[in-house]
């Protein structure tokens, strides 16, 4: 069966390295295309052929379960041959540099490489050295564009439109690529964005990225439509950035009491994996206002849309 | 390339001598390795037989530049830079004296290494090279190096190079001890704890790039501490590389109270800012980091009024293996000895700085602080002289640079002004053709 998507959207870039640089029209085009894949993914026959014959490499320098699985499924459902490479089995452990890895993989003629790396800017560096398309699946604290797109898709399906919504992004803004991509995307689509975090987890100058900044959850959540929680990495919990998980949960953990500051129909999101009892209470995470499982579903559709849109630019396409 | 030591007449020149605030049209005669005279109308008639006569066509004749901070890889990292290759780059940039840093392998913390560097420089380099020696053994910031013996061996100042002495007690003792030898202490003022994992200036651009920032306070706190210690010890102190406006206020207060303190700024921090990093360009990764434009402007203003004494290159050759990496993992540093003058002329052309102020900070002041001859065109001074065309436009191609490394932040930069001829001790060691 050969399902043809109705949208003929083409992304005017060879790579997807970040939300920065995407226009409103491009973001909306990707979201519209994603909608079609949401429908497809709910059918029994989920496979299309638009990437048949294409090779997709998932190159993950940092451990990931859901993002890697999501890209793998997306690639396979579009008919691509998908190869997963993770750091534990790659030669980077043997001292090979990122650029050498890029050059080596490039010689194997992949069509698309999906890259996650622990250093900001690493994906861009790799993209400079290859002939194929590159998708950023998260680079350091910089960007994670497909996460922001899937968040936007999730919000739009529930709220109809993103413009004029108030979104609070809460937690470790300093180290979060999810926060940066979301701030840029939500601003581009006309939402009002707040960030809520203790000052040690707020990058200096963040207010110049077009957000309202507050250190108080009550103030930050007041009147919000969407509450986006961020993961707090384990190594940052005990004294280096916040004194303890208990104190962090007391002031910044999302429980029913704090959620009550938001609008009654506010929705809760989290990019996962969650630290239950640290940044989010289980009752909220599993509650009626939570979109967390829906985000995962949207993730596959968005990644299919991104792969599809980029592949329409590939040579001989 | 090395010409013999017959006399040279630099005729029809614009003589600029920042040591005497002179700027006039005239001729300059060099013989026996010293400046004989610099005045109007010496002319071909007034020179000894066999004199090489160079028509300068109105271009500038100035004292050769003294670069107070350059990292050279010899000994230990000759693949990055040797004393010879550094000197070739220096000559092409109008630098006649390099003050090399002790961050070598082994570190220059032993009189024998000072001796080695001096002998290698004598045998292989085409400009003068004088080493600074380590302030503490192994640059570890723990035990004092042999300041007396190192100075006697020829070390011109004492520094832990690109490292800061964290222990205030060690710094205090170093200042007190060095005072007995009238030795100058040069200090890199960055608190390593406040730098932490920081890789660029803290602020909006670091936030956008997802990179950890280095706060201005990392520099200011260390500088403040040092200057309080200087006040208590009356030592001689030079801040190696200041970058932000807050530091300048700290420095100003110390100078106003009459302390023997001085400071450098690197050509990078005077002509570039954090935005130049753009999409993670590692050739712009430096320590201390490139700062905000307001800081750069403050630095230039401080240079113009003489609060900043010295402009240095902070020449730091790094090869592609350590630069072609993700930004946070890449090495810091940029080469600069060959481009220091031409980059500095940007400030003159933009009207931010007077030519004499630039040349003074690149020659007269560092020579005075280090206690070397040079930095002047007085009769009888050593003939370390540079001929500069201040206006010629050109585009920098990093593959044409003399350094062994290519990590210049000025690749493909549109520049104006260049070195035409460099003379060291009366010999022409570089000529632009």
What does this structure look like?
The complex is a heterodimer of chains A (317) and B (433). Chain A is of the alpha/beta class and 317 residues long. Chain A has eleven helices and nine strands. A five-stranded parallel β-sheet of chain A has the order 7-6-5-8-9. A four-stranded parallel β-sheet of chain A has the order 2-1-3-4. Chain B folds into two domains: 95 residues, Urease, subunit C, domain 1; 308 residues, TIM Barrel, CATH 3.20.20. In chain B, the strands form four sheets. In chain B, strands 1, 2, 3, 4, 5, 17, 18 and 19 form an eight-stranded mixed β-sheet that branches. In chain B, strands 9-10-11-14-15-16 form a six-stranded parallel β-sheet. A three-stranded parallel β-sheet of chain B has the order 6-7-8. In chain B, strand 2 and strand 3 form a beta hairpin. In chain B, helix 12 packs across helix 13. Chain B is globular, with a radius of gyration of 21 Å. At the A-B interface, helix 4 of A face helix 6 of B.
Which residues of chain B sit in consecutive blocks of at least 5 with pLDDT less than 50?
none
Numbering strands along the chain, what is their spatial order in the largest sheet of chain A?
7-6-5-8-9
Mean pLDDT of chain B: 96
Rg of chain B, Cα atoms, Å: 21 Å
**Strand residue percentage of chain B:** 15-25%
Quick check: average pLDDT of chain A? Answer: 93
Structure class of chain B:
alpha/beta
Poorly predicted regions of chain A are none
Number of strands of chain A: 9
Properties at a glance:
heterodimer, A: about 325 residues, alpha/beta, 5-stranded parallel sheet, 4-stranded parallel sheet, 11 helices, globular, B: about 425 residues, Urease, subunit C, domain 1, TIM Barrel, 2 domains, 8-stranded mixed sheet, 6-stranded parallel sheet, 13 helices, 19 strands, about 30% helix, about 25% strand
């Amino acid at each position: 069966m050969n399902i043809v998507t109705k949208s003929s959207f083409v992304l005017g870039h060879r790579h997807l390295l970040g939300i920065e640089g995407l226009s409103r029209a491009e973001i909306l085009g990707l979201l519209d295309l994603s909608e079609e894949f949401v429908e497809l993914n709910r059918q029994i026959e989920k496979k299309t052929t638009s990437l048949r014959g294409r090779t997709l490499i998932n190159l993950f320098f940092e451990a990931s379960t859901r993002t890697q699985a999501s890209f793998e499924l997306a690639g396979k459902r579009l008919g691509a041959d998908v190869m997963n490479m993770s750091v534990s089995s790659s030669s980077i452990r043997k001292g090979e540099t990122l650029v050498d890895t890029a050059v080596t993989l490039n010689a194997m003629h992949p069509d698309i490489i999906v890259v996650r790396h622990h250093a900001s800017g690493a994906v861009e560096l790799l993209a400079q050295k290859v002939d194929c398309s590159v998708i950023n699946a998260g680079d350091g604290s910089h960007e994670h564009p497909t996460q922001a797109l899937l968040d936007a898709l999730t919000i739009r399906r529930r709220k109809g439109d993103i413009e004029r919504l108030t979104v609070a992004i809460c937690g470790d803004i300093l180290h979060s690529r999810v926060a940066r991509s979301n701030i840029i995307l939500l601003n581009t689509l006309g939402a009002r964005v707040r960030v809520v975090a203790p000052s040690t987890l707020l990058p200096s100058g963040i207010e110049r990225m077009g957000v309202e900044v507050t250190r108080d959850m009550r103030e930050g959540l007041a009147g919000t439509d969407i509450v986006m929680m961020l993961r707090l990495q384990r190594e940052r919990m005990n004294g280096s950035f916040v004194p303890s998980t208990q104190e962090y949960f007391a002031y910044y953990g999302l429980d029913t009491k704090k959620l009550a500051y938001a609008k009654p129909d506010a929705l809760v999101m989290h990019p996962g994996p969650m630290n239950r009892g640290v940044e989010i209470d289980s009752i909220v995470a599993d509650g009626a206002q939570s979109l967390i499982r829906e985000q995962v579903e949207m993730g596959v559709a968005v990644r299919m849309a991104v792969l599809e849109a980029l592949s329409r630019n590939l040579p001989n396409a | 390339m090395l010409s013999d030591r017959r006399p040279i007449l630099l005729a029809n020149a614009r003589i600029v001598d920042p040591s005497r605030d002179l700027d006039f049209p005239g001729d300059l005669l060099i013989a026996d390795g010293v400046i004989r005279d610099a005045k109007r109308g010496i002319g071909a008639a007034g020179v000894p037989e066999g004199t090489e006569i160079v028509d300068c066509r109105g271009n500038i004749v100035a004292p050769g530049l003294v670069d107070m901070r350059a990292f050279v890889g010899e000994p230990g990292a000759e693949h990055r830079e040797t004393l010879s290759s550094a000197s070739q780059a220096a000559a092409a940039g109008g630098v006649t004296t390099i003050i090399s840093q002790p961050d070598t392998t082994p570190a220059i913390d032993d009189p024998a290494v000072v001796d080695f560097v001096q002998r290698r420089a004598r045998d292989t380099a085409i400009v003068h090279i004088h080493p600074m020696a380590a302030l503490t053994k192994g640059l570890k910031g723990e035990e004092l190096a042999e300041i007396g013996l190192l100075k006697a061996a020829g070390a011109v100042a004492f520094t832990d190079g690109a490292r800061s002495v964290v222990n205030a007690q060690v710094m205090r003792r170093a200042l007190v001890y060095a005072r007995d030898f009238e030795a100058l202490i040069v200090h890199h003022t960055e608190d390593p704890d406040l730098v932490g994992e920081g890789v660029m200036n803290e602020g909006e651009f670091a936030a956008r790039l997802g990179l950890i920032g280095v706060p201005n306070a990392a520099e200011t706190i260390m500088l403040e501490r040092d200057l309080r210690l200087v006040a208590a010890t009356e030592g001689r102190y030079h801040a190696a590389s200041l970058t932000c406006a807050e530091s300048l206020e700290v420095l100003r207060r110390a100078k106003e109270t009459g302390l023997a303190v001085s400071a450098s700024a690197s050509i990078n921090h005077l002509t570039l800012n954090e935005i130049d990093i753009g999409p993670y360009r590692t050739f712009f990764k430096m320590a201390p980091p490139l700062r905000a434009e307001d800081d750069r402007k403050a630095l230039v203003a401080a240079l113009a009024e003489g609060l900043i004494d010295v402009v240095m290159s902070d020449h730091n050759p790094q090869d592609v293996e350590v630069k072609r990496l993700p930004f946070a993992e890449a090495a810091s540093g940029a080469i600069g000895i060959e481009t220091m003058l031409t980059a500095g002329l940007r400030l003159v052309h933009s009207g931010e700085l007077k030519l004499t102020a630039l040349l003074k900070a690149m020659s007269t002041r560092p020579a005075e602080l280090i206690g070397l001859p040079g930095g002047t065109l007085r009769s009888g001074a050593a003939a370390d002289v540079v001929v500069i065309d201040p206006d010629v436009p050109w585009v920098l191609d990093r593959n044409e640079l003399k350094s062994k490394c290519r990590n210049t932040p000025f690749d493909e930069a549109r520049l104006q002004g260049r070195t035409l001829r460099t003379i060291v001790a009366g010999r022409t060691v570089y000529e632009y053709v």
